[in-house]
Amino acid sequence: MSKKTFVTKEQIQEIVKSWPTPFHLYDEKGIRENAQAVKEAFAWNPGFREYFAVKATPNPFLINILKEYGCGTDCSSMTELMLSKALGFSGEEIMFSSNDTPPEEFVYANEIGATINLDDFTHIAYLENLIGEFPKTMSLRFNPGGVYSLSNGIMDNPGDSKYGFTKEQIIEGYRILKEKGVERFGIHAFLVSNTVTNDYYPTLAKTLFELCVEIKEKTGVQMNFINLSGGVGIAYRPEETPNDIRAIGAGVEKVYNEVLVPAGMGDVDIYTEMGRFMMGPYGCLVTQAIHEKHIYKEYIGVDACAANLMRPAIYGAYHHITVAGKENAPCDHKYDVVGSLCENCDKFAVDRMLPEIEMGDYLIIHDTGAHGFSMGYNYNGRLRSAELLLKEDGSVEMIRRAETAKDYFATFDCFDLYKDLV
Ligand SMILES: *Cc1c(COP(=O)(O)O)cnc(C)c1O
Fold first, then answer.
1. CA–CA separation, 293 and 275 (whole Å)
2. pLDDT, position 1
3. CA–CA separation, 142 vs 407, rounded Å?
4. Which residue of 139, 153, 154, 251 has the fewest C-beta atoms within 10 A of its own C-beta?
5. What pTM was computed for the model?
């Protein structure tokens, strides 16, 4: 199977007249169609809400598009809470699913009315100490421990993960919160990342639904919402079959009807916190080939580096690459495509078969719309790129400017000696 780009060589040649490479480019049309599909897939649940995981793509212009489809935000930190507030999200539209949380972030989340999703049993007393009285709505994060496997062999190891409450702790947690006057309850779990199977949410839903029935029996706490969190994956590789969100929604509906409805819990709201699935395929990193190197292997040096997209360097993650304008050329050259960092892991592709690359060619690195730009950093003094939006009408809008040296030096502004840099 081939993977298509949402931008052509001709469009890139136009864009670079205003904004030089490298840049992340996002596809408004793709974002909108997907957000609509998510909404429809869960329309059977009247209280459904997707809380977009801000950390995936913390850009206000993009989050505002999702807002039009009824999405809220899922925040992991102070700045993400601040961004959500600035974008006009109301309290109930903001989920605060953080861990190892600094005290001031709990206080701020409570102030703006966000739903606090506690990561640990000890955080119950910690939060009470900080804010006195619990908010009316509270959520707790579950970790089932052990190994969690799906029918197609995908698995992860919650027993090794730092997140969440054990089963005994979470049951006790709801009991305490109820005693302390909390009125609305939620449960959350995130067990496997980037699942490319329609099975993950339905399987997780069954685990959580059955647990909620047990919690109700043991504590009298009736769950108001069940948060399936993130983890719905995307097809980074051409041979993978993309997830079908309608099949996923229908799969969750089926277990909802099998487990919750007979237990008299047919009014529970389903929440999700997808990041990757909402944005991943609708962003790409456009970069230009600036060097070629023929030593023990063949290298193509591009003007982007791991500071613009870290996933290949840290996880060996696969990102498909298209050479713009050579979409139909034979992939008969084997290259390592590399960035400039003084780290040998700074490779966007290793031993990748691609069309012959000439200096000046534009390379489109696919699926950078989530956990792409946002994982960027400044090692080697490299600056973060611009983010651009390819709009539905074909025009392009800058939605974040590229960093400049002044930004890089900005934190020296308190030192007179270096004021010329700032
Ligand atoms: C990272 C994260 C998400 C989003 O995960 P994706 O894999 O991008 O869908 C959602 N919720 C929490 C708590 C997270 O940490």
1. 37
2. 59
3. 40
4. 153
5. 0.97
